[in-house]
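Translate structure to sequence.
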């Protein structure tokens, strides 16, 4: 069982980030094995000739699970929080943005390289060209937050299902300590409803119980590597 699913404050637990939230862009692997960056919350973007300025255009009508419209201000808040949250451990994603170091050190209260133009347009200027910047934006730790709901949630964000809301295909429905998490389909997701009604993730610490549950059809997915690690500390077993 995780202690938090706040993706800015963990480098391990990304299930909620990847299913309940979205990122500006996503990385996909084609049939030929080639990786490419595709639009997600950002419908389009333009990179300046010098590789420093990225101008983004958000999709129209993207709504958070509580009904609020996602705007450029939410994206700014996401990167501001990523650089200033006392427990943030994914700051490397944003450290190449102009002025990030000064904000991180507390020398300023604004992120100099981030400019909100309107509700759907914003730009990010880097300190120097960084070829993999878009790839960084596809990482789970770069998932986009809603400013109002996250601020209101305060320390409950990432620790309470009700207070952890995003724009993704699943809604974080419940978190019962020592039992598990439940995600329910978001029928109004901007990318379309998911193919499943929901997902239940169970916390099982006993290897034997876990294997019996899988064998009896109570679990659809079982990670044998993690199970064996818990049992004997070995590197894994054949699947």
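Result:
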């Amino acid at each position: 069982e995780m202690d938090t699913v706040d993706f800015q404050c963990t480098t391990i637990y990304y299930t909620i980030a990847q299913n309940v939230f979205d990122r500006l862009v996503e990385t996909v692997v084609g049939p030929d094995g080639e990786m490419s960056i595709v639009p997600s919350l950002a419908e389009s973007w333009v990179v300046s000739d010098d590789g420093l300025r990225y101008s983004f255009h958000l999709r129209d009508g993207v709504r958070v699970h509580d009904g609020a419209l996602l705007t450029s201000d939410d994206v700014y808040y996401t990167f501001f929080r990523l650089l200033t949250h006392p427990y943030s451990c994914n700051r490397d994603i944003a450290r190449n943005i102009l002025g990030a170091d000064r904000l991180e050190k507390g020398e300023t209260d604004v992120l100099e390289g981030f400019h909100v133009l309107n509700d759907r347009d914003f730009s990010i200027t880097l300190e120097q060209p960084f070829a993999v910047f878009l790839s960084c934006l596809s990482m789970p730790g770069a998932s986009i937050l809603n400013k109002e709901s996250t601020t209101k949630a305060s320390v409950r964000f990432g620790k309470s299902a009700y207070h952890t809301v995003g724009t993704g295909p699943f809604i974080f429905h419940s978190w019962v300590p020592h039992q598990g998490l439940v995600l329910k389909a978001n029928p109004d997701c901007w990318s379309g409803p998911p193919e499943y009604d929901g997902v239940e993730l169970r916390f099982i610490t006993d290897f034997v119980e876990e294997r019996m549950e899988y064998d009896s059809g109570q679990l659809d997915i079982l990670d044998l590597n993690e199970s064996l690690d818990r049992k004997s500390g070995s590197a894994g077993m054949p699947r």
